[in-house]
Amino acid sequence: MAYERYRAYAPASIGNVSLGFDLLGAALRPVDGSPLGDEVEVLPADSYSLQIQGPFAHKLPDNPDENILTHCYHHFINRLAERGGKVAPCAMVLYKNLPIGSGLGSSASSVVAALHGLNAYYGEPFNADEMLLMMGELEGQISGSVHYDNVAPCYLGGLVLMAGQVGNIALSLPVFDDWYWVICYSGIKVSTAEARAILPKMITMTDTLTFGRQLGVFVHALHSGNRKLAASVMQDVIAEPHRKRLLPGFDAARDYATGQGALAFGISGSGPTVFAVSEQLDRANRIRDWLAQHYVQNADGFSHVCQLDLHGSSVKKV
Question: What pTM was computed for the model?
Answer without folding.
Answer: 0.94
